[in-house]
Structures are given as C-alpha cells and as structure tokens.
Amino acid sequence: MTGLTTTATPIPSSPAWGKCMALALAAWIASSSGSPAHAAHAIAQYGEPKYPPGFRHFDYVNPDAPRDGTLVLANPNRLTSFDKFNPFTLRGNPAPGLGLMFESLTTGSSDEVASAYCLLADDIAVAPDGLSATFHINPKARFTNGDPVTAEDVKFSFETLKSPKAAPQFSVYFGQIARAVVVDRLTIRFEFKVATREMPLLAGGMPVFSRKWGMRADGTRVPFDQLAFEKPIASGDYVIDSFDNGRTITYKRDPNYWGRSLPVRIGTHNFARIDYKLYSDATARLEAFKAGEYDVLVENVARSWVRRDIGKRFDSGELIKREFPHHNGTGMQGFFMNLRRPLFKDVRVRQALDLALDFEWLNRQLFFNQYKRTDSFFVNTDLQAKGTPSEGELAILEPLRKKLDPAVFGEMPKQPDTDPPGSLRANLIKARELLAQAGWTYRDGALRNAKGQPFVFEILDDTGGGASMEPVAAAFGRNLQKLGITMNFRTVDYALIQKRLDAFDFDMTSVRLPDVQVPGTEQVSRFASRYADEQGSDNLAGVKSPAIDAILQKVVGAQTREQLVDATHALDRVLMHGYYVVPHWYSATHRIAYRNTLGYPATLPLYYTADEWVLSTWWKQPAGASK
C-alpha cells in the first residue's frame, strides 16, 4: 500500500523518464568543480563512470533481446483519463508514456548512483571552475519530423521550461543555471550561477524538444501552456500512433529513430508498439489484468498481492507473480501535515499525532507483515542519519544551534512501536502529555485549545489507485479519538486532489516523495522556505526553517561524497525532529505480476522503478521460446 505521489513534474532520471504526476528526479551530480577541463563520453559524481569509452551496452540489458511485439499496459498512476500531450505544464492531465518521446543530452545508468552518459550529446566538457558545461550534439541526432537537433533547439527547450508557461518545478530545478549559450550549430554551453557537482548533470538531463512544436501552418505559435493534443516533436524512439477519447493511447517505434546503435540504447525499448488502457478504478484495472487485457501489473497493495492477485490464469502459469529486489532509497511516504494550518504549527502536536499511528497493528492486520516502518527521509541507504550526530554533522549543525531544537543534537527519533514492552496505551499517554504542553486539553467531550475550539482535521485522499488509505485512516482515527481528536477522512478524484495539493488546500494527506540516490536540487524544492508559499511547488508541508535552508545549501554544494553524506545526515536529522510527517512503511522489493510471454534480462539493475524497467529493458518472447 502506498500513498499519493507528490505533485511535481519529473525531470529526467535513469534509465528513462516520464510525466506521471510525480517527481522522479534523480539528482545527478557531476565532476568536481576544481578538476581540470575535460571532454568525455560521460561524467560521474566522483571518480570515473563505470562504463569506459567505447562500451557496447549497459550490463543490465539483453543486447540480443527480440525487438518486436506489443506491450499492453494499464494506468501507470491514478489518472483515469488524459487531455494533453504536453507533460511539462501544470494544468491538465498528460497522457501516459510521453517520456518515451523525449530525450536529453545525457542519460544515466541504473547500476550507478550518479552518472550521465552521452545521448543527444556526443561529447561533454566541464570548465575548470565548474561554472559551465559544454555539450556537443551528435550530428546524427534527429527529431521525429526529420529535422536535426541543434543547439538552438536545446536553448529553446531550456528557456521554455524555465518560463512561467511551464510547471514551476522546472524553474526550481534549473534555477541555478544562469543561461544557455549557443556556441555554434551543434554546441551548447550552460553557464551556472554556482559551481556544484550536480549542475552539469542537471543541464545534461534536461528534456529537449523542437522549436517547431506548436507552430501553426501560418507561422504563428500555440502558447506552450496551451499545447494540448499537438503531438510533440521530440527525438525519442517512439511516436504517437493513435489515441481515443483520453482513455487509450498507442505508441509505435519510429522506423527512422536516429539513436538505435548508441551504447545507451542497445538492448532497450524492445517493443514495436506500446498500448496504454486507462481504467476507471483499481477494481476494474485488476479484473482486466486477470482477464488478460494487459500484460504487466505493478502491485503496490500488500493485501491485493496476497489475496486478490490470484485466479485461474495465475494457477495455469499464464500470469506470473515475482518480487524483484532493488537498492533504491525508498523515499518518504506518510501522512504529510500542512503547516500553513495553525493546527499543526506546534511540533509537540505533530509528534503527538505520530505517536497515535500503530504501525505494528497495521502490518499484522492489513499488510501481511510485508513492510518495515519508515524512520528516515533516506531510508534503505547510507544517507539515513542514525544515533547521535557525527563530527561531520556537528560541523554543520553547531553554527545553527540557536535555530534548532536541542533534541537535534541527541539521538535520532525512534518511531513509536507497540510490540512489547511498548504499547499503544503508553504511546497515547505520551501523546496526551505533549498535547497538554501545547495547550490542548480534554473537556466537554473533545480535545480543545484555550479558546475552546475542538481539535478537528481532515485527511484528503484520492478515490482510485487501488491503494486507498481508508483502512489505515480508520485505524489511525480510532486512536486519535481516544485523545479527543476528530479526524475526518475524505476522498476525491485524483485530478481534483492534484489541484488541491497544488493550491495547498488540505490539512493532511498521504504522499510518497520519490526516492533519490544522490540528494540535490530536489531537496531544495521540497523543503526550502522560499517555496513554501509558491503554489504548485514541492514544499507540500510548508516547511519554513532558516536552519534547513542553510543545510540544504550544504547538500547541493557538497564537493566530496563524505560532505554529501554529512550534509544529508544533518538534513535527515533535522527533518525527522521536525515531525512534519507521520511516517508510513516501505519495502525493498518491487512486486510485479506479468504475462508469461514477456522476458527480462538476467541481470537486474540496482536502482530502478518497476514501470520504467519494464518499458526500457523487457521484451516479447518469440512464439515457442522457452519461458
């Protein structure tokens, strides 16, 4: 069971990227700003990229995979319809799979945490001072209309994405890129406001599209934020073949795709066609899969995996269930509180709410003991803070001591548990004490503040996706009721909840922040004070902390892996002590059910999402092939 994914528009990630109304930014970090200027086929966070010049393909692909057949998929997220082909704007619902059409100057590999290999570019040079990076575009690179990809197109893409006509997240991610300069027809230089390790990789990961996208026959242009069903002119290996009524869309491989022989493309995108069918709700979607209407189900609901993903096609072997391990940081999923509401301003109130969630009961009764409790914003990685602050962390935290809760300098918070000797009763007693300290006492049948106002709030959830939080919220609400708190649970359509989250019109909601392997600019967009009041931003909780702002600068400015780890530990420590979220749970495996006509590489990637892995490296088995 998962929560609603956060609202932002994604930026390129490895191995592919797409608009799924979720931030999927992999904060790629480039070479040291103090290193000599160099030109290369790839750049890496520290040291050298895993794959040397002249490599043939990534290790986790099958270079001999069949390249034919159709892959049929269902809704990859909770959207049940679409009304545009532009994944870069805030308004409207984009079609699934649009990421198949867009490429960037570089792309990452899925067995390294931070690397960027040439894709549209064929050469990368980082300046000695780290304040610029120059990319030479492969002269073979072509858009789907046959036009060559030029430096002017890259500049146009950059300036469009940073403009008010694009979703505001792009101006955040690319905000430290001062300008894009056309050096010549095939050379583009990005100049940076600051020299950080991630800047060249953020620039290289920017999606590129043609200046002709949206041009009318008379030479006038459709405003970028009004592009709807104008088909994108991009450089990817798929194009839109057909679509129907905002409910189905089919992509076909571009027979003239320019990059099929590139090392980063060998063994990838093996299907000739990809169909998406959007179902009205989770039940219809599951029953359609069991009836054989589509090929792959990525299961996020533990109960469904055990109790509902069964039937005659599973029994016969036509449908297969398997759990695939991954090494991703699992991100933060939880009930996010909106600190713009006065109710949640006091950290003691937020901590009390955390104490009322009985994870152990939920894991036994609802999740079949398939999960672990989330206790960090960087869980399942070495970036998770533990114990007391290290010397490196203290060097960051001590100058901020007056701005921080003294508890930050002690042990990391431990999530409450109810396994003996712990108990829900003990947790609720502690919660009651914290609430009393914050001015909330029980009288006249409810928990009330000094003005007599009752403690009442709403959890906002969407109606689809198969991962409804209603059973969890009901159990949470029963515990809160024992404290005199009234929690109302409300469900609305996914498209409406997206608009409400963009406008920060909620009390509490269930969200999952996508994981990152190398924290960077995306952390700024999530927690920096300057984005707390910018509608549509990723600072969903409304965090405003000068101390966190200072630590974020340490994160994005880290020059060594050790500095990055210390800064991220400090950030994690302060965020967890802030109790902005009632953390949920995580799993270190992907649960995938699939038709037995599909194949996948023997070597699994390390860092990957299930949907993108299927799209990028699986294939259709030839008739008669062994399963």
TrEMBL record:
Any one Gene Ontology BP term: peptide transport
Keyword Ligase on entry: no
UniProt name for this protein: Extracellular solute-binding protein
UniProt keyword annotations, A-Z: Signal
SUPFAM superfamilies xref list: Periplasmic binding protein-like II
Tagged with keyword Signal: yes
Database matches in InterPro entries: Peptide/Ni-bd (IPR030678), SBP_5 (IPR039424), SBP_5_dom (IPR000914)
Signal peptide limits: 1-39
Residues covered by the Solute-binding protein family domain: 119-512
GO cellular-component term (any): outer membrane-bounded periplasmic space
GO molecular function: peptide transmembrane transporter activity
Highest taxon in the source lineage: Bacteria
Organism of this sequence: Caballeronia concitans
PANTHER family: ABC TRANSPORTER PERIPLASMIC BINDING PROTEIN (PTHR30290:SF64), PERIPLASMIC BINDING COMPONENT OF ABC TRANSPORTER (PTHR30290)
A UniProt-annotated Pfam family: SBP_bac_5
